[in-house]
Design goal:
Blueprint lengths: L4 E7 L2 E10 L4 H11 L7 E12 L1 H18 L4 E3 L3 H10 L6 E3 L10 E2 L7 H16 L3 H19 L1
Parallel strand pairs: 2-3, 3-4, 4-5
Antiparallel strand pairs: 1-2, 1-6
Length: 163
């Protein structure tokens, strides 16, 4: 698998995130920082997540996307769109309950804006733990199946943090 990276494009209030390769925990601080910056922008009209070149995606990255969607709904009253042409990736999205919080389009859309790489932000061990916990909490909030799957992980993380 290709090492993961995230690119972005923006224009006319449309923000597009393009995940390329194997998107994992090492990119969580980069993704989380971009999400925070994007939600400081008052003129967000649409959010698109392009997964057409995604080879793999971990649960932490999915949890951050769940957060992005919920926050977009609350702050802008919009439902982000995911472009996914890989059946395996689409199956993961459906298993996690993403159809509840995203418009999933199983074909590639067209980006009319210039992509740039998201600047990589180093992920410390402490930061990674916080992002993993936060991301999995967002996943658990999507449905009972996710709560069943990730609840034990969250309980262990909270137990480790307390003790």
């Amino acid at each position: 698998m290709t090492a993961g990276k995230i690119r972005f494009a923006e224009g006319d209030g449309t923000f597009i995130l393009k995940f390329i390769g194997d998107v994992r925990l090492t990119l969580c601080t980069t993704l989380d920082g971009f999400i925070d910056e994007m939600f400081r922008n008052e003129s967000v009209a649409d959010i698109i997540i392009d997964l057409t070149e995604t080879e793999g995606i971990d649960s932490t990255s999915l949890g951050l996307l769940a957060r992005l969607s919920r926050q977009a709904g609350q702050q802008y009253r919009l439902t982000p769109t995911i472009w996914s042409t890989n059946q395996d990736i689409t199956r993961i999205l459906e298993t996690m309950g993403f159809r509840q919080v995203f418009n999933i389009v199983e074909e590639a859309g067209e980006c009319q804006y210039q992509y740039a790489d998201l600047p990589f932000r180093e992920c410390t061990e402490q930061s990674a733990r916080e992002k993993v916990e936060d991301a999995h909490t967002w996943l658990c909030n999507l449905n009972d199946k996710n709560r069943e799957m990730f609840g034990p992980l969250l309980r262990e993380m909270k137990k480790d943090k307390a003790g």
